[in-house]
Amino acid sequence: MKTSIIEAFLDLVYPPFHPCPHCHRPDTAIHGAQASLCSPCFQGFPFLMEAEKPSGVESLAHYRDSAQSLVHRLKYKEGLYLAKPMASLMVQKLKLEDHQMVIPVPMHRRRLRRRGYNQADLLARNIASMVELTYESNALIRIRETAPMYQLNRLQRIRNMWNSITINQESTHKIQNQKILLVDDVYTTGATAQACIRELEEAGADEVTVVTFALADAESVHQKT
Ligand SMILES: [Zn+2]
After folding, report:
1. Residue 1 pLDDT > 60, yes or no?
2. pLDDT of 99 above 90
């Protein structure tokens, strides 16, 4: 937290520049107040209305337009710098108070090896540091890779996630009686989040709030990749 104050000051005096992740306009200042988007793109940012959020879910935007570009670019190494400004906008706009712990939705280790990082982990890590909550990176484990979900119906999706996520036994004692923020990049069917919540609650978590950057509409469902 202390270094982030110095970083914030340096960013103000010497703002780093990068092309806008949505329209590619060059020399866009990277800062968290508009998730590093250029001003015209940020003006069109598809913020979710309070009433559009599913119960128990804190999500920032519809999964489209500039919000979709940000989520896409965070999946590639040249977009890694976006994790911090994206997390910063989430912290500014979402209701994250009254929690103690932040946990990311896990990625299967095979996929992790291919990708090199879990984008949910990057967002979660930055959020935890900004709101000064305990961060448990490995509390949940994805024990098998799941089939793509876009062609499955709701029941099949739930079955698909069944037993694909488990609690890390070493983390169980830390989770008990905690109010937890479960972080992912996109909320799609909710099947992934439900599988995580079930595990966390069975391990004794007091309450779990799902926190995502974007919320996919029912028609544009993509499996977390
Ligand atoms: Zn732009």
Report:
1. no
2. yes
The pLDDT of residue 225? 42
Q: Cα of 23 to ligand 1 centre, how many Å?
A: 4
Amino acid (one-letter) located at 124: A
**Structure tokens that stand for 119 in this block:** 């984008």
CA of 25 to the centre of ligand 1 (A): 6
Q: Is the dihedral of CA 190, 53, 135, 2 positive or negative?
A: positive
CA 43 to ligand 1 centroid distance, Å: 10
Q: What is the mean pLDDT of residues 5-26?
A: 79
In a domain, 30, yes or no: no
Q: Is 194 a member of any domain?
A: yes
Q: Does a structural domain hold residue 177?
A: yes
Question: Could you tell me the CA-to-CA distances from 60 to 153, 187, 208 in Å, in that order?
Answer: 26, 10, 17
Compute, in angstroms, the gap from residue 41 CA to the centroid of ligand 1.
4
pLDDT tens digits along 187-213: 988 889 999 999 999 999 999 999 999
What is the rounded radius of gyration, in angstroms, for the C-alpha atoms of the chain?
17
User: How many domains does the structure of the chain reveal?
Assistant: 1
